[in-house]
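Hi there. Long-time user, first ticket. I'm pasting a complex I've been working with (about 377 residues overall). I'd like to know whether the download I got is complete or cut off, because the file seemed smaller than I expected. Thanks.
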Amino acid sequence: MAERAHGGGAADNDVVALLKRQHQQIKELFHEAETATGDRRREAFNRLVKLLAVHETAEEEVVHPAARRALEAGDRIVDERLREEREAKDVLSRLDDMDTDDPDFLPTLQALRDDVLAHADSEERLEFSRLQEKTSPRSLAMMAKAVRAAEAMAPTHPHPGVESATKNILLGPVASLVDRTRDAMRRTMGGKD
Amino acid sequence: MSAGPADLSPLIAATTRWLTRAYAAPGGPLGAELAAAQTRQAVTVAAWLRYPTDLDAALVLGLGPGGSARLDWLVGADCAAPDEAGDAWRTWVDEVVASWAACLLGDPALAGAAVTGALAAEHAGGLPLEFRRLTAPDDSDRRAAALLRHPDLVAPVAALHRDALLERLGPPAPPAAGDHARAA
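Hi, the file is complete. Here it is re-exported in full:
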């Protein structure tokens, strides 16, 4: 299965718990990037960029649409969060173009940290907690699964049917095999295909 | 997401990795992540269209997605070179899904129709999901995916299975009456 980028444990079945834990991880990575120096600062910043990107994308994909529908004034609440995310993305883009030793890097990073943590706090108070109240545990679990899928990393082991990527090259595409098997199963099950 | 056992995320993550390595984003790590986000959405939509039911997903996960061999050959040896994560992930790449995703990244109208179709798949689980990085990218998304969204550059991959995607999506919706009036 795909490797998990972030998450797991008790937050497996609740999207709000999962995203709150990621907010904590983001806070910790800001601290690490601010206190480290040289290559370690660059490495921590790169991890922060990755986490922010996958986290915000998953929120936009899974949680914000649900909040729009479930919450009173959901559109206004979500639009405000999206505006904050766009502003943070612009600052992140400026940082991405800077050398981590640039004298402007640290103050810009600290300003971004304040904005991102304020954004996370607004999400938790105004969006997540209300969504949790209005959403069934089953839906919260399905949303958690969707977020984890959106953040999954590529497997580091070969498909069980293939001993190595080299052997896989010898086998070639199996698309037609999947299609033939699917068609045969549908015919067997009484389908029209 | 489907509540069933068939989890397409290994196939989706590996196929995303192949596309983002073949058509690398310019600039720093943020560009790479922005490109990966919209590519992953395109691949997700493509995978859900290609394997819409849990049974379909179980089938491809059981038989194997086929791997990246022909795609590697198609785009050249650079992409086929082992990366820091090894090359085992390449066995999880799905050529048809990669081709469909390339079609979607290069054609916004097609992407919109594909999202509608994908949300009807069992994997969406009835959740009101949105794939706006794919369907409504902002300027920074577009810059990061300039290569991936360039129809000429992805043409060799997109052309492999474009006909099957168009067949899967069916005929395009007829233009609204107002469009006819404006055209006239």
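A couple of notes from our side: Residues 4-8 of chain A have pLDDT under 50 and may be disordered. DSSP finds seven helices and no strands in chain A.
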